[in-house]
């Protein structure tokens, strides 16, 4: 087994894990910014995240090429090979290092997923509050308590604060 390829693979997985940790820190900051309503700073974080996504994509390309080379050596289909399967075919030391990378990466991704779900709920709640507020402002009516010429009560006239509902 080519230990150089395994070393490259663990390096890439560690780099990806570091980037996901950075995503997690940014996501924690986003939670605070969403709660405080600081949209301009939120936009800055989104720009940083976009640059990190590009880095992850480049690392994924490299990882796929390495996995393809490793699968050729092992005589397996590159699309079917997993880290768990790979650890069965390599030495104990390399397998332990690869397993550690896998766990670190999975922990980072799962933490990030949980944080993103929280942020998504916060944004949804904010949007619902904004929608509720707009509906309250646009449906304010004035009760006249008077009768029209037909003898029926006058219709409630709606007072709109905005020309257009968004």
Please describe the structure with a list of short key phrases separated by commas or semicolons:
166 residues; mainly alpha; 4 helices; elongated
**Strand order in the sheet with the most strands:** 1-2
- Give the strand content: under 5%
Distance between termini?
Answer: 61 Å
Identify low-pLDDT runs: none
Number of helices: 4
Global shape: elongated
**Biggest β-sheet: count, sense, barrel?**
2 strands, antiparallel
Radius of gyration: 28 Å
Number of strands: 2
Mean pLDDT: 86
Helix content: over 70%
- Structural class computed from helices and strand pairing: mainly alpha
Topology as a string of helices (H) and strands (E): HHHHEE
Commentary on this structure:
- The protein is mainly α.
- Helix content is 73%, strand content 4%.
- The protein has four helices and two strands, in the order H-H-H-H-E-E.
- The protein is elongated.
- The mean pLDDT is 86.
């Amino acid at each position: 087994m080519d230990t150089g390829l395994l070393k490259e693979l663990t390096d890439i997985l560690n780099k990806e894990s570091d980037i996901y940790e950075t995503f997690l820190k940014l996501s924690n900051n986003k939670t605070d910014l969403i709660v405080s309503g600081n949209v301009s700073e939120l936009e800055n974080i989104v720009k940083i995240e976009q640059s990190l996504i590009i880095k992850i994509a480049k690392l994924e390309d490299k990882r796929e090429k390495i996995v393809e080379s490793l699968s050729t050596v092992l005589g397996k289909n590159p699309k079917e090979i997993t880290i768990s399967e790979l650890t069965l075919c390599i030495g104990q030391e390399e397998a332990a290092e690869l397993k550690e990378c896998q766990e670190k990466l999975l922990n980072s991704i799962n933490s990030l997923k949980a944080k993103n779900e929280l942020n998504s709920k916060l944004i949804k709640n904010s949007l619902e509050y904004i929608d509720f507020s707009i509906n309250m402002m646009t449906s304010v009516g004035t009760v006249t308590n008077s009768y029209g010429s037909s003898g029926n009560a006058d219709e409630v006239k709606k007072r709109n604060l905005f020309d257009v509902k968004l």
